[in-house]
Amino acid sequence: MASVSRKRKRSSGTEAGPYVLQSLADDLPLATESDDTSEVEITCVEFWEDNLYVGTSAAEILHFVLIPPEPSDSSSRPSPILAFRYRPPFTLSSLPHAQPGIQQILLLPKVNKACVLCNGTLTFYSLPELSPVFARVANCSWVGGADLDTDGENGARDDGVVIMILVKNKIRLVRVTEEVRVVKDIGFPSSTLSIRRSNFACVATAHAYALLDVNQSRKIPLFPISSLDDNAGVAVGGEAEDISSTSGPAISRRVSSAHPSQGGARIDDRGHGRSTSLGTFVGGLGRQQESPNPSSRLRSGLETPDRGGASSPALAVSPERPTERGTSPAKGTISPDKPLPPPPAVEGGAEASKPGKTTTPQAVLLEPHIVSPTPTEFLLTTGTGLSDPGVGIFVNLDGDVSRGTLEFEKYPERLVIDGQGLQTSSESDPHGDGGEGYVLAVMERDMKLGGGRGIEIQRWDSENESQKEWVEIIPASARTEGVTGQPVLKKLGLRKVAGHGEISIAEVGDKLRLVRLRLGGASGGDSPVSVDSSDSRTKASVERVTREMELFESRTLESDKEEPLEKGWEAAKNKQEEEISRRFGKLQSRIVTWSGNRIWWVVRNPLVIRLDSRLEVARPVEMEGRNGSQLDRSQVITVLNSIRGLELRTGTGPLSLSYIREKAGLLLFTSLVAASYAGTAITQVDKRVTEDALLDNSIDPRVVLAAIPMLREEVLEGPRGIWVFGGVKEIYEHSSLNIHAVRDNIQSGEGLDPEILGIVKRYLIAWRRKKGYGSVSVEDEKEAFRTVDAALLRVLLVLDKNPVGQGLASPVRAELYDLVDKSADKGGIDCFDRAVALLEGFGRLYVLSRLYQSRKLFKDVLGTWKRIIEGERNDRGEFVDGETEVRKYLVRIKDTALVKEYGAWLARRNPGLGVQVFADDKSRVKLEPAQVVEILKEKAPDAVKEYLEYLVFGKDNAQYANDLITFYLDTVLTKLSTSEAARDHMFQTYETYRALKSPKPTYQQFITENAIAEEWWRNRLRLLQLLGRTHGAASAYDVSAILRRLSPYENQLVPEMIILDGRQGRHEQALRLLTHGLGDYDTAINYCLLGGTSIFHPSTGTFTKEAGIAREDQAALFGYLLTEFLSIDDVSVRVEQTGGLLERFGGWFDVGYVLSVIPDSWSIELLSGFIVSALRRLVREKSETMVAKALSGAENLRINADFVSRCDEVGPSMELPD
């Protein structure tokens, strides 16, 4: 098997647990030359303001001063220097058992005092030099009980600090200021430690716990420490008791009389007048059946006991122990005369040796532990034996169980609480690790779990079952022979000290500092990558845009210009980041642990280290020459889920979360890309999670894009480079995609799952939305967004390259158009030159034209469209009906030169569309008709006719009517003069039309419907239409000039001659040609009705509305027409047409005239219709005359009657002569 070496080194200091150890002091000189070195142990430790106080079993205090390291050395730690050794005075007969040495050191920073309990004698000292200040107190069992709520270092100094001590079987409250005064005594014998919150203290004896109201001197019994201890059950669960004492003060000497006598402690009327139900709660603990799975009892979910005194839910404990632990002996009793065990060592309470032996094997006296996680709760421990699991119970200030219990693998030897819990805002945590609450317990593990002594860590503030962590400090292999000859492990101490220690973890800064990432193979230049298929015209447009951008930037205000980079800027930035990283790694802790002659800080492991360690475990181990394993994606996803919704606003919290999100997202993405290229199946869940991870972090997008070889050349580093977190840089540099070669088709994107490109597309679109916002946290924003634009364009082109049918829109087509359509100032593409090269290379000329449109490069737009129309490569077939698009675009622009150039080009290709460019009323470029005609004659001769037709027919411009007619005549006459077939076709149409039987269409309809697909024929139809118009500019043409040209072809151009005869008033000749030359009888009738003004016009049908022609003129024309009809050669046609004419238009004929010209041989029946209508007309006229006469007579009578009536009204009048 080939040798395998690890490419990526795991950091040995990286721990995933919530706490890590940092050395505080090593090789402490605990013993002097006169002492037995092997017997001297550390009994207690305190720390305050770089002063380390170590108490030993030799009744000595060692005072060390921590000397800080050099500021430039981030890896070193403070060095402890021994200031002095001191032996506190004590009375040899003060304790009934062996002398433990220094039992407790209690610091009171608020008043700069320290209390030291040494072999039962309490002495007071000043801080920090430990100078004696007050008288000693003999026969003292423990000292503590400082108020955790108000006796902090920042409280008011005048109030002093009230502490609790046990002297002569009484708890004495003592106020320490510049003097020591007794506040009150409470009768509570045999207590071993106390923790106090305001007026409430939780106190422990050797057997049980109780809750004291120190103000009212009342006690509520809680529950026993050992559920097998029958002696503890006497007072458990009883009523609240009054335990006030009138004992006088034991300390009366004043050090200073400058301060008036202090009163008692703060009074609170709150007391306890009810019984507790905790006795019932713990009563069954001694008979609890041990669960085969200890973790299943981590949270029992016990409810708070009922306030009415109902029993609490039993915590059933079986008296039968597991086989490996042996069976519990029969119960016995403990002698009340036996002295109490030495005071225990707890947080904020006593620091003493372990409890003494029990009097009987049935029950073991367990060391009590009391800590206070919140201002209204205490955490107490209970159990059945030293080797059995322990239970932590939370009680509130009313003595009720306040939350679910904790379970310890073994009964703790020491206990410390840390953190304020999740209910506290994370903003209160100065280190950005949130407000999580932890319980740290010292214990020795079972040999089946590896043995060793260490710290078991678990959460106390989570309702859900949390995972326990184990920090081993003394391994099982370090066992030594004990007093009994059995191998034992060294003792392990644990305590929360008064002051905060400053600890530096360089790894935090190494991960969070910004470092420059050099991509190596990525393109770092600013010029566009050349594309072989780029057109020279495209390159010219790119150069022009570049010059315009430079000109625009040169006009920018000086304040807006980017300052040039100073020499050595990168080194300066690295130095700045290094200084910042030192601050990132500075932490604080108040928890210390010790063993032998060494002391460690127990430091809350920074969030970034804990999470990063879990990510490192998930990463594949990179082997020489190959990728050894795959990423554990589930582990990375678990890490991301653990911080989902987490918001940290102070310290390194925000940076830590950002770093973890960036690293996890990059890990998931690079593994997804590698799997795709390797052909490994990828689930939809993996793709969705990876996309969410990318969208949820703010990593420089250039780093993500560089992970895809196809997009790496789009990455622009720029002069400022790419700066990322140190931990993220390591991911990129050691990625297998950057080390090992990949297949040849990787650059083209082939082999990469299109759905992954879809993820990249949505990621880049999301990044583009950040453009212009100040929240973008990349070093070179300009280059970053240029990279994003180029990469997004390339991804869209690759996705849209998949065939979906020519001219049909693909799903990403709209996104591609939206990207290139926006102008630069409205979120458009910033990398214009690169975009041009990409579009050229992908053969997407139409998309390129849209990009030009967004930049208002009209000439380039038209030039690109021209290339497409003329047949150059344009994949996807998007430019449908391109000539129409060119026409619309020319109408919208205002560039006269472009309109002339491309309008003439379009007219040359498509005369109809080209003319519309110059003829459209909405065109923004207005050219004179003469100028347009000259342009068309020069560059598009075939479009001249179209434009003239527009002027004459559309604009009614008489100036160009003769030109248009001349054009038509030239075409038609040239054809007739040069083509015998054309002449034959002309005669054939006449013969065919004349041969048609009635009813038949007009000649105009006939030749239109049977038109031949030749230009000269279409021009002839337009000529007839133009000549036949009776109004407007089209009718203002030179008739005589046209007649001169038509005279040689009058037999071939009969309709034209008819129109011109009518214009000259030669109506008889015109009607003769219509009747005998064409045989178009309906048109002849229309000629009479319209007065001979027009016969070939757009209207259809035989009859038309009379347009202002005098009836007399019409009658005259109908007379001419009747004469022509009567001379038709075909008798049947003659009779049919004449009869029809007289019957339909008889009103225009005189009856006498008609009868005179009709041949006598015609039957009267042929004229019956005309005669009947004429007689009816005569009768009607006679009747109308008679009616009119009668109406006139009646009107005359009415007027006469009115006159007579008026005269009667006026009456007679007399006129006298002058």
TrEMBL record:
Primary localization: cytoplasm
Domain CNH: 39-470
Compartmental location: Cytoplasm
Coiled-coil stretches: none
Region of interest (Disordered), residue spans: 239-358
Annotated GO biological process: autophagy; endosomal vesicle fusion; protein transport
GO cellular component: cytoplasm; membrane
InterPro entries xref list: CNH_dom (IPR001180), Vam6/VPS39/TRAP1 (IPR032914)
Keywords, in A-Z order: Cytoplasm, Protein transport, Transport
Biased composition (Polar residues): 243-260, 288-298
Protein name: CNH domain-containing protein
Native source species: Trichoglossum hirsutum
